[in-house]
């Protein structure tokens, strides 16, 4: 800090710890009515990662301008520097040396010749998974309720083999259209679509929240899995990956409905693995920890907010959706050949705490 020049590879925390970097960043954010507080969850990431993560609100041009201004010493006058977004826990955990950056390495051809259905492909973990499969040669059947988000996804992948299906996984007609779009062979299914609850404990949960969360996270996952089984049996195998959550491993990550729904996803995963393992079908789950996506979590109950927030004090930094896609595609691909019925925590170690 202070000695090395700030670049796109420098961590956000380092930009904020540097007086000039802090002033320039604070000045730039102020123009859109924001403060560096927005960066707190991602402070350990290299600042260049924000270009992709922010989906257009922090552009490559803005980054280039930041780097140029800091190198030229163009520090704005009169800017009150923002606090360096450190918190109490950081004193013990901030590494003495910069951490190595994770780089996604494509395995060319890992999904070549394969058809893979991905639900929730319009956003977050589903979009990252669908993208990785497409970029590794697979034919992707990209499913989402949002036509607009699917259009964005395909626009990001010119030339890739992608079929989009606008469908709700709780709807039988939608399920039929997904399977029809996939065609005669379905090598993989990634059940990623899902929603959060409102963090209410059992004493406060409404029937509406319970029913909706169960319908999408559990029943929708069940319906689409059931629909692909005949094709996978006929072709002698296939790979299914369900999306659980940290809330499938513990009671402190969400409200009653979401926690119950994700525990049910693990049960569904194990049953499917046990029943169809001898037929060549593998079924595993990934349990993501906090991940930067568009998922919405509201706190509709004071008790839920107090209890869940207390547990979140030990959370590792949130991961990028691409990091989850790396775990999901590993299980989905032939590299997962000997793995069946597991729930793989992909959470930066949260579950070890
Ligand atoms: N983001 C996290 O921190 C986190 C943590 C643990 C688990 N998860 C799980 O990961 C999965 C993906 O979540 P995300 O964070 O990427 O969320 P997201 O909201 O960014 O994306 C979910 C996508 O699913 C789609 N979808 C919702 N309901 C649908 C339905 N009925 N039919 C078809 N598509 C539907 C949405 O339109 C959206 O595009 C979910 O199952 C979620 O429970 C997320």
What does this entry look like structurally?
The chain is α/β, with parallel strands linked by helices and 353 residues long. It has two domains: 12-93, no CATH class; 115-352, NAD(P)-binding Rossmann-like Domain (Rossmann fold, 3-Layer(aba) Sandwich), CATH 3.40.50. It has helices spanning 12-17, 19-30, 50-53, 60-72, 90-93, 124-135, 147-155, 172-182, 207-235, 256-276, 302-311, 321-332, and strands spanning 115-119, 139-144, 162-166, 188-191, 238-243, 281-288, 291-292, 319-320, 343-346. Strands 3-2-1-4-5-6-9 form a seven-stranded parallel beta sheet, with helices on both faces. Strand 5 (238-243), helix 10 (256-276) and strand 6 form a beta-alpha-beta unit. The longest helix is centred in the middle third of the chain and has 29 residues, at 207-235. The two termini are 30 Å apart. Nicotinamide-adenine-dinucleotide binds next to helix 6, strand 2 and helix 9.
What labels would you give this structure?
binds nicotinamide-adenine-dinucleotide, two-stranded parallel ribbon, 7-stranded parallel β-sheet, Rossmann fold, 353 residues
Describe the structure concisely.
With 353 residues, this protein is of the alpha/beta class.
Report the strand count.
9
Q: Main sheet, how many strands, which sense, barrel? A: 7 strands, parallel
The hetero compounds bound to this protein are: nicotinamide-adenine-dinucleotide
Instruction: Identify the strand order in the major beta sheet.
Output: 3-2-1-4-5-6-9
Structural Rg: 22 Å
* Count of alpha/pi helices: 12
The CATH superfamily of the largest domain appears as NAD(P)-binding Rossmann-like Domain
What overall geometry do the principal axes of the alpha carbons give?
globular
**Mean pLDDT metric:** 91
CATH class of the largest domain: Alpha Beta
Beta percentage is 5-15%
Q: Provide the helix percentage.
A: 40-55%
Low-confidence stretches: none
N-to-C SSE string, H for helix and E for strand: HHHHHEHEHEHEHEHEEHEHE
The end-to-end span amounts to: 30 Å
Q: Output the CATH topology of the largest domain.
A: Rossmann fold
